[in-house]
Amino acid sequence: xxxxxxxxxxxxxxxxxxxxxxxxxxxxxxxxxxxxxxxxxxxxxxxxxxxxxxxxxxxxxxxxxxxxxxxxxxxxxxxxxxxxxxxxxxxxxxx
Length: 95
Fold this sequence. Notes:
Number of strands: 0
Radius of gyration: 13 Å
Largest sheet: none
Helix content: 40-55%
Structural class: mainly alpha
Distance between the termini: 31 Å
């Protein structure tokens, strides 16, 4: 079951296109923080929020994922950070 997303959340949703100094991990933290502020607890909503924030080549990358590949928050966040983080070990930032 998909849960509804409040439209006011989209007004403050940051965008990420991998063309600025911001790295993927920082964007993930921003989106997760926004979800916390709005008390979003459903994983499907968090996945759609992150995906909705993608623009440009990041959106192209997301659309290129195998249909049905993303079934959880971790299945989107981990490959996203691996693909678009510009630091040595992206998972060193997660610990």
